[in-house]
Amino acid sequence: MNQKFEKYKGIFPAFYACYDENGAISPERVREFTEYMIGKGVTGLYVGGSSGECIYQSVAERKLVLENVMEAARGRIVVIAHVACNNTADSMELAAHAESLGVDAIAAIPPIYFHLPPHGIARYWNDISSAAPNTDFIIYNIPQLAGVGLNGALLREMLKNPRVIGVKNSSMPVQDIEMWRDEGAIVFNGPDEQLLSGLVAGAIGGIGGTYAVMPELYLRIFKLVSEGRIAEAREIQDECCHIIYELCSCHGNMYAVIKAVLRELGGPDIGGVRRPLSDIVPEDMPTVRKCAEHIRTACEKFVK
Question: Does residue 116 have a pLDDT over 80?
C-alpha cells in the first residue's frame, strides 16, 4: 500500500449531529463529542455525512460543525469532511472551507433527486475537488439513498483526478469493494453489518454510523482481522449486527436511539435529531436500556 494512505487504515465513526435543547447546532457539544471519540482511540472521524444529518443543515451550520471538530481535534486524529450539497456552488464552498481548516480529505455523494448521467456526476465531483486542490477526495457511493451508483467506468474517469484516492462504499454487495480496489482505489467499508466481510475483501478500514456508540467493538474487529483471527472477529460482528437490529426497532429514528443509548452509557449528551427525523418516545426507553446493556456486555466479553 502507498505509504501516504496508511493514515486512513482503521475505524472512522461517522460524526453525529450535536444539538442544544432548542435544536440548534451546539459548538460546545461538538467539541465535547470530538474529545470523547478521540479518547476512544478511533483512527479518525467522518464529519458532515448522513449520520451528521447533513441534508437537514444549512451551509453555515455545516461549517460551524467542522470548525469546532477541527478546533477540538488539534491534529490528533484524521478528519474526513463530507461536503456534498445538492448544488455545485454550495458543495464547492464547503470544500474550500474544509481545506482551509486543514482536513485530511473531503468526500461527496453524487447529486440526489435528478439522476445525472455519469459525465454529469464526474463534472460535479471534479468541480468540488477543484475547490480543494490540495486535499484528498473520496467518492461516497450509497446508491440506495442517492439513487445512482458508482460503476467501473465512472471510477476510472474520476481516478484521472490526482486528488481522488478512493471510495467510501455503502452499497451492500461486498463485490463492489473488490471491484473498486481492483481499479486502484482505496476503499472504506460503509455498511456496519458487513465490516468484517468488507475488510476481508480488501477495504482499508470502515466508516460507519453505529461506530461511535460502540467503537470498542469495531476497533476490536479491525484488530482481529489485521491479525488473521477471522473466527473471533465474526463473533463480534454478529453481536454488532444484533445490536444494530435493536437500534432500528424503535419509534425514534436510529440516530435518535443511538444518542439516547450514548447517554445511557455515560457518554456526552448531544441532543436529539432534527425533523423530519423522529425523536424517541417514552415507549422506546426499554429498548434504549437494552441496547446499552447489550453493548456493555459485549465489550466486557470481547474487548481485551
Answer: yes
CB burial readout 12-32, b (16+ within 10 A) else e: bbbbbbbbeeeeebbbebbbb
Whether the pTM exceeds 0.85: the reply is yes
Q: Radius of gyration of the chain from Cα atoms?
A: 18
- The answer to whether 140 is a known catalytic residue is yes
In total, the chain counts a number of residues equal to 304
- Residue 245 catalytic? no
Q: By the 8 A CB rule, do 284 and 247 touch?
A: no
Name the 3-class secondary structure at 29: helix
Among candidate residues 83, 60, 199, 192, the one with its CA nearest the CA of residue 136: 83
Does residue 293 register a pLDDT over 70?
A: yes
Spatial strand order in the sheet of 105-108 = 10-13, 205-208, 186-189, 164-169, 136-141, 105-108, 78-82, 44-47
Contact assessment for residue 225 and residue 284, using Cβ atoms and an 8 Å cutoff: no
Active-site hit among 8, 140, 211, 218: 140
Catalytic residue chosen out of the listed positions 16, 124, 168, 259: 168
Q: How many CB atoms lie within 10 A of CB 289?
A: 13
